[in-house]
Amino acid sequence: MVRYGGNFVVVLCALIGRSVAQEQLQAGKPGNASYDYVVIGGGTAGLALAARLSASASVAVIEAGRLYEEDNGNQSVVPYYGLVMPFLATAENYPRQPLMDWDLLSTPQPAAGNRRIHYAQAKTLGGSSAINTMTYHRGTVGSYQRWADLVGDLSYTFDKILPYFKRSATLTPPNLQKRNAPNATVLYDPSVFDNQLKGPLQVSWANWVDPTQSWLARALQAVGLALSPSGFSSGKLNGGAWTQTTIDPKDATRSTSKSSYLESAIDSRRGQPTVYLHSQASKILFDKDKKATGVAVSTEGNEYVISAKKEVILSAGVFHSPQLLMLSGIGPASTLSAYSIPIIFDLPGVGQNLWDQIFFNVMRGISVPNAGTYLATPAQQAVALQQYRSNAAGPYSSAGGYISFEKLPAKYRTSLSPRTANMLSQFPSDWPEIEYITSGFPSGIANLTTIGVISATLLTPLSRGNVTILSSSISDPPVINLGWLTDPADGETLVAAFKRVRETWNSSAIVDIVAGPEIVPGATVTSDADILNFIRQSAQPIWHASSTCAMGKKDDSGAVVDSKAKVFGVKGLRVVDNSVTPFSVPGHPQSSVYMLAEKVADDILNGN
Ligand SMILES: Cc1cc2nc3c(=O)[nH]c(=O)nc-3n(C[C@H](O)[C@H](O)[C@H](O)COP(=O)(O)OP(=O)(O)OC[C@H]3O[C@@H](n4cnc5c(N)ncnc54)[C@H](O)[C@@H]3O)c2cc1C
Ligand SMILES: *[C@@H]1O[C@H](CO)[C@@H](O)[C@H](O)[C@H]1NC(C)=O
Ligand SMILES: *[C@@H]1O[C@H](CO)[C@@H](O)[C@H](O)[C@H]1NC(C)=O
Ligand SMILES: *[C@@H]1O[C@H](CO)[C@@H](O)[C@H](O)[C@H]1NC(C)=O
Ligand SMILES: *[C@@H]1O[C@H](CO)[C@@H](O)[C@H](O)[C@H]1NC(C)=O
Ligand SMILES: *[C@@H]1O[C@H](CO)[C@@H](O)[C@H](O)[C@H]1NC(C)=O
Ligand SMILES: *[C@@H]1O[C@H](CO)[C@@H](O)[C@H](O)[C@H]1NC(C)=O
């Protein structure tokens, strides 16, 4: 057993003030070894699952990245930096951060300006929970009912999965004194959390409210998106709310699967996974009975095999899990044969059915400050740093803000074609079509404080993308075709949402703070064709891609795993991450990813 120590721990403690005990990772040493369970990918789902299994079994985690506290400074720790990490940019020439990011570029998207999209995915212990925007909420009752129906397993209804949501998270009520914004009312239902279960993930409300967001929230409320009485973790997504976020309120640091689940397992002393850092899985190995026996791993040039006495669990994320299945001989036979990969099982759904939510922004000048305003100069940063260090408050302590959901109101539906209207009507009645997010950044213009942003995200995408491979080697990245806007319904729905956003900007509730004409896209964009063109040229990922190894029924030709996350056609192999969610759950997925990890861990521990 090798433990981290020395300089590394000292540096970390100085940076973020954590105890040495929490950094006592049990690090794996390159070379053949054997464990009960081998988890590929120490990301959001992978570490949650590994932490639960390690309480009663030996577990190895194979993670390609290293530690974000080292590789990303305080960018993955201080909440505000989560909003401004440079490598999250989506343009093809984004600033690279190869220690943290997989450097994935999509294929050119013909229906989205032929752009290649940089799709950030974290390569680090903690996975994308270490780079996400920390918004926490759950899907709707109807969406989980749809999940249950699609996979033929009623244990996915909201009532049945609520215990797993509860088990995963601890909720801290809002600190109204630190928030210091009586006009940013927080409403929520405490009964959908249970702190006695000591869920490792920390969920709270930011200790600081962005004035820009408080004003834009008012505009959304004024056009009909009233404050939700129960918030967004009780199975309803309608209206607006100051969002829960995965921030540990005691020191206002990001709560990742690493800082929560893994560190809790370490602290518990009941057992912890052995973590192989900077170690890439290249292939899952099978015996003649098609049982997964282990994983071929490479650590800085050392190649070896980590064997699984019980099971292999693939948690490499929405793009790399289907890639690894294909490289291991599980996937569409035509693809495998094209690269001379011996076929273990012909599973045509691997890499198909990619769902992706996209958004656009409409920007106008406003005369109230935003978080960036308070961090614009070294002197202001010093003040904010003092607030942050001494009180876990101030602009550095905050990331998420105000979010709203709705099905488009009737007056915006009249322009939808019958086909689009019909397709949208197939979604459950409580599944919102659009999410609105507010934000702002310093304008850099002398007489203009803030450029305010209202974005609209499509939660009912009908376009589907796919993931495939271009060689039989792990050293080539997966080929990602996002399929954006290839179904005309998506463009129609977003054009309607665009008009709704303009109505919001025009609301009398903010007339006193809105300054000057629309900045993006600008007053010349008026016809539906112009609006659609703007959306094609500027649509961005909100990084919620899912469903490339979709869970489903055995007789469903597109399904890759069953409702216990077991891969069809082989033994001893499950996939547990956002690739198996059968569709993009409306809104932000991380709560459902943790729920799924808890649920499958329970199945495994109960011998199912
Ligand atoms: C920028 C961004 C912002 C987001 N904002 C939010 C938000 O505000 N709220 C929300 O709910 N969701 C948000 N999401 C989405 C959410 O974070 C993800 O859906 C979720 O983290 C996915 O978890 P996962 O376990 O499927 O994959 P990941 O957490 O990405 O884990 C996959 C892990 O596998 C590792 N890996 C991959 N291939 C290999 C290999 N061959 N060998 C070894 N290791 C490998 C990776 O390095 C990674 O650690 C955001 C995502 C991003 C990227
Ligand atoms: C490691 O295991 C693999 C597969 O079982 C085997 O081929 C190889 O010889 C082993 N290496 C060592 C150093 O034992
Ligand atoms: C983050 O780290 C940078 C570089 O070390 C430092 O300048 C900055 O003050 C830190 N920010 C916070 C909020 O701790
Ligand atoms: C809410 O209160 C904060 C703090 O006093 C203030 O900065 C902000 O402008 C207010 N917002 C609205 C909409 O009144
Ligand atoms: C992916 O989808 C595109 C259409 O959007 C199609 O042309 C391509 O053949 C698909 N690739 C795979 C591997 O399914
Ligand atoms: C904005 O409001 C004005 C007057 O209140 C109205 O004439 C105009 O049509 C509105 N525009 C939009 C896009 O809602
Ligand atoms: C800022 O000042 C310029 C020059 O006086 C003016 O043209 C512009 O409209 C002003 N912008 C706003 C948002 O007030």
Automatic annotation (TrEMBL):
Coiled coil: none annotated. The keyword Glycoprotein applies. Its cofactor is FAD. It comes from the Eukaryota. Residues 122-145 form the Glucose-methanol-choline oxidoreductase N-terminal domain. Keywords: FAD, Flavoprotein, Glycoprotein, Signal. SUPFAM superfamilies: FAD-linked reductases, C-terminal domain, FAD/NAD(P)-binding domain. InterPro entries: FAD/NAD-bd_sf, GMC_OxRdtase, GMC_OxRdtase_N, GMC_OxRtase_C. One of its GO terms (molecular function) is oxidoreductase activity, acting on CH-OH group of donors. The active site is at H544 (proton donor), H588 (proton acceptor). Transmembrane segments: none annotated. One of its GO terms (biological process) is secondary metabolite biosynthetic process. FAD binds at W543, H544, P589, Q590. Residues 1-21 form the signal peptide. Belongs to the GMC oxidoreductase family. This is GMC oxidoreductase.
